[in-house]
Specification:
two-stranded antiparallel ribbon, four-stranded mixed β-sheet, alpha+beta, Glutaredoxin, 12 helices
């Protein structure tokens, strides 16, 4: 009687391990999605997480990128545990088929997530230039899932698996480059700090901007930052020219990243008013209050929730 070959421990426990790793990723991306949607501040020791979340790369098709990350991790959890619920003798045939299909889906999902995370790491360190702990951990989790999808199963057709991986990686990379094409190749802008300002200024906005400049208030931002654009839209075309705006991205117009680093800016936009810092898009009334503005407050442009 032939003795049944015992599986290596990594193959016996690969699915629970992958489910655990994916759960950690799902929790992290769910938290960041909540922070992004509520425009809150992420609990991040490096401070770079808010910079990343405020970048244009953090939004895809009008939704937080982290939401898609959560869906990816959740799918990996489902793929990992699905066969484990059908493991009785009566369900052996179904279990076998589920095992075969989901192991392939785990490999494809792991490949896609690792390639996409690799591109995000490039953006993180070469373009955005901010240290985001959550992003780095997510990249490590994605890479772990990819490695486990290979060594955690007994693959018979290695050549076919390699071919599938190349196809998935190519599709993901091409799709990612296409998705971010408009950001990587932005059109020329005519206003300081990035996007065109389409709103007009009333005398109240102009007076507030002049007052902020007089008291030494500084607005730190980046030309690609949508929240910075929202802040400038509140002031309008004429008033924006009066602001003491500091461009933090070296690729922007008249950049001063040294001043941003010295001020330890952690998110965009950030205001420095009378020695205190205020992060995020501020209403004109809030700016007037904290700066001691006593002039006309009949502001034309109002901050509306999104």
């Amino acid at each position: 009687m032939r003795k049944k070959r015992s599986l290596p421990w990594i193959q016996r426990w690969s699915r629970p391990i992958m489910a655990g790793i994916a759960t950690i990723g799902a929790v992290g991306t769910a938290y960041l999605t909540f922070v992004k949607l509520t425009q809150g501040t992420a609990a991040c020791p490096t401070g770079g997480c808010d910079v990343v979340l405020s970048s244009p790369y953090a939004t895809v098709f009008g939704l937080p990128l982290t939401l898609f990350g959560f869906l990816g991790y959740f799918s990996m959890i489902v793929f990992a545990v699905a066969p484990l619920f059908f493991n009785t003798l009566e369900q052996k045939r179904l279990h076998t088929r589920l095992d075969q299909w989901t192991r392939l889906l785990l490999f494809m999902g792991g490949t896609a997530m690792m390639v996409f995370s690799g591109y995000l790491m490039y953006l993180l360190f070469a373009v955005i230039k901010a240290a985001c702990l959550y992003c780095i951990v997510s990249a490590l989790l994605s890479t772990s899932l990819f490695v486990l999808s290979i060594i955690g199963f007994d693959w018979e057709e290695i050549g076919q698996l390699l071919f599938t991986g190349i196809i998935v990686a190519t599709v993901v990379l091409v799709g990612t480059l296409g998705m971010y094409a408009s950001i990587n190749n932005p059109r020329a802008e005519t206003t300081p700090g990035g996007y065109n300002i389409t709103t007009a200024s009333s005398q109240a906005e102009i007076s507030l901007a002049q007052h902020l400049k007089q008291v030494g208030a500084k607005m730190y931002g980046a030309f690609w930052c949508p929240h910075c654009h929202d802040q400038k839209q509140l002031f309008g075309q004429e008033a924006v020219a009066q602001l003491n705006y500091i461009e933090c991205d070296p690729k922007g117009k008249n950049p001063r990243p040294d001043l941003c680093q010295a001020a330890k800016i952690q998110g965009f936009p950030s205001w420095e008013i009378k020695g205190k810092f205020y992060q995020g898009t501020q209403s004109l009334k809030q700016l007037a209050d904290v700066s001691g503005y006593q002039g006309d407050r009949n502001f034309k442009n109002v901050l509306t929730p999104k």
